Task: inverse folding
């Protein structure tokens, strides 16, 4: 019994961070129909920011959030405004964004490799090896802190979306872009904000995973593959779905890893993706495609 | 007085061909107009171009003599023209009340928004009783009322309504047209696109006949209804179909 509880806890702790990463991705799809294959590479780029703040001035990765969040927010505004208006209005906008963001991912990965080489790195603040013991249950401190921080950031996102005027406009645009336009929402502005928030979430995720999972420039492909599986399970463009999907799959992966070994954990995500597409292609909280 | 003026407007969808070709028309303040014509004539394109959802490729769109062509939709709305599209474009996962709140998006004063919502509820009692329901779960007629109510939240000078009776049962369509009549009494200038030509003409004073993206005819609505030659030349099939539907209903 306690072993089941133990695996559940480890899974949920991982899921918290996955949820943060996936929420940025699903927000971009929900508001703008952008499939952002570069989401992972920006998370890794943020890992490097956290890393150099750690080995240089000795900042704790949590302190680096103060840099990564605003930095990636601004970067998001610049990238959205400079690249996406060119393909706006295209009949195949979503497909175009796949190509565009794939290109961005390759370029950013190239820069990261050129400057920082392909060496595995990670920040290692003192608490990475600590754990809290409650009875038999083992709770790794670093994972706990990271998922608590994710939870706080997700609550802040929720508060923004449901309690502010701009948040209402973002949700309205997610539900029906034309409708948002005809009630007076400046959707270009809202799209820029939503993209920037998605990027800020990628930045925050980078700070958090910099001490949880060792990274190198190429490791973003592994992340984007997992994240896409998560948001397809939740329903593309559904924030609630991204969070629930992340928690479910992280727990499932923890069980697979416990039973068959860690090598098999990634197959959980792709197996789930396969099943979702087969049985319920719109995902848990997605709406069926309307014509 | 001319409220809205289109001067030789050419327009179409992104990366697509021209749908409207050099269309000129004038809408006077306080009057009701109907755009009629076969499918693909460009009726909706006129409304979308005025609403700012499409950018005119050539020509001018003037509101009170000032150019609004190519302006962002939110700025056109702020200038007093609101648009109710064919699919109603509600926020399906928001409640009726939240949809109305979104209708008041341009009004920063929340108290004013609440007052207007009360007015809308007085006008459409059904919406009051459905206030907490998600818009996507309502019937077609209720959705159309919500779309009209949400549009009224902006207190527009002019409303452009695309196919208000589309997909509605005749009795429900009657209710919608009663509402449209009351919009006229409120002094709102109306520009209607209506597939059911008879209803559309009865609800309006003047009509524009569009065909293949050009304006063929501009005449008082009742003259089109009464003139057998115009009926036959331009509306033969359509009007017959409309009349049949009307007879069946009665």
Result:
């Amino acid at each position: 019994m306690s072993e089941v509880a133990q695996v559940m806890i480890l899974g949920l702790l991982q899921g918290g961070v996955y949820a943060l990463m996936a929420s940025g991705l699903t927000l971009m799809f929900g508001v703008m129909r952008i499939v952002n294959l570069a989401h992972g590479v920006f998370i890794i780029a943020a890992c490097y920011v956290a890393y150099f703040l750690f080995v240089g001035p000795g900042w704790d990765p949590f302190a680096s959030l103060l840099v990564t969040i605003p930095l990636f927010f601004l970067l998001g505004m610049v990238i959205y405004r400079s690249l996406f208006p060119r393909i706006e209005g295209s009949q195949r906008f979503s497909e175009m964004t796949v190509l565009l963001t794939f290109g961005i991912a390759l370029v950013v990965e190239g820069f990261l490799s050129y400057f920082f080489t392909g060496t595995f790195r990670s920040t290692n603040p003192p608490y990475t090896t600590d754990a809290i013991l409650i009875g038999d249950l083992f709770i790794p401190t670093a994972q706990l802190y990271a998922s608590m921080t994710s939870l706080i950031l997700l609550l802040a996102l929720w508060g923004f979306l449901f309690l502010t005027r701009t948040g209402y406009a973002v949700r309205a645009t997610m539900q029906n872009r034309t409708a948002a336009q005809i009630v007076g929402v400046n959707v270009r502005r809202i799209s820029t904000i939503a993209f920037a928030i998605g990027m800020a979430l990628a930045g925050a995720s980078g700070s958090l995973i910099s001490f949880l999972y060792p990274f190198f420039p190429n490791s973003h492909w592994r992340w984007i593959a997992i994240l896409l599986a998560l948001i397809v399970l939740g329903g593309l463009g559904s924030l609630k779905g991204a969070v629930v999907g992340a928690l479910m799959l992280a727990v499932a992966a923890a069980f697979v890893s416990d039973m068959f070994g860690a090598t098999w954990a990634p197959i959980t995500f792709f197996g789930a993706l396969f099943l979702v597409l087969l049985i319920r292609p719109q995902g848990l909280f997605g709406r069926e495609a309307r014509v | 007085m001319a409220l809205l003026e289109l001067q030789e407007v050419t327009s179409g969808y992104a990366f697509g061909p021209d749908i409207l070709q050099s269309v000129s028309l004038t809408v006077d303040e306080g009057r009701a107009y109907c755009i009629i014509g076969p499918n693909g004539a460009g009726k909706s394109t006129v409304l979308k171009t005025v609403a700012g959802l499409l950018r005119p490729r050539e020509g001018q769109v003037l509101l009170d003599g000032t150019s609004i062509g190519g302006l962002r939709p939110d700025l056109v709305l702020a200038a007093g023209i609101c648009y109710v599209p064919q699919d109603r474009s509600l926020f399906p996962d928001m409640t009726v009340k939240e949809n109305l709140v979104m209708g008041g998006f341009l009004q920063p004063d929340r108290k004013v928004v609440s007052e207007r919502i009360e007015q809308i509820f007085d006008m459409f009692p059904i919406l009051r009783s459905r206030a907490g329901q998600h818009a996507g779960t309502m019937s077609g007629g209720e959705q159309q009322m919500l779309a009209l109510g949400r549009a009224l939240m902006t207190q527009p000078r002019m409303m452009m309504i695309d196919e208000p009776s589309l997909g509605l049962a005749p009795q429900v369509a009657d209710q919608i047209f009663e509402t449209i009549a009351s919009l006229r009494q409120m002094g709102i200038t109306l520009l209607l696109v209506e597939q059911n030509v008879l209803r559309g003409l009865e609800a309006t004073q003047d009509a524009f006949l569009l065909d293949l993206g050009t304006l063929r005819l501009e005449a008082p609505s009742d003259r089109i209804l009464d003139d057998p030659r115009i009926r036959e030349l331009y509306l033969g099939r359509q009007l017959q179909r409309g009349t049949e539907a009307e007879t069946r209903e009665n």
About this structure: Chain A touches chain B at residues 89-91, 165, 168-169, 171-172, 175-176, 178-186, 188, 287 (CB under 8 Å). The beta strands of chain A are 131-134, 137-140. The longest strand of chain A covers residues 131-134. The mean pLDDT of chain A is 91.
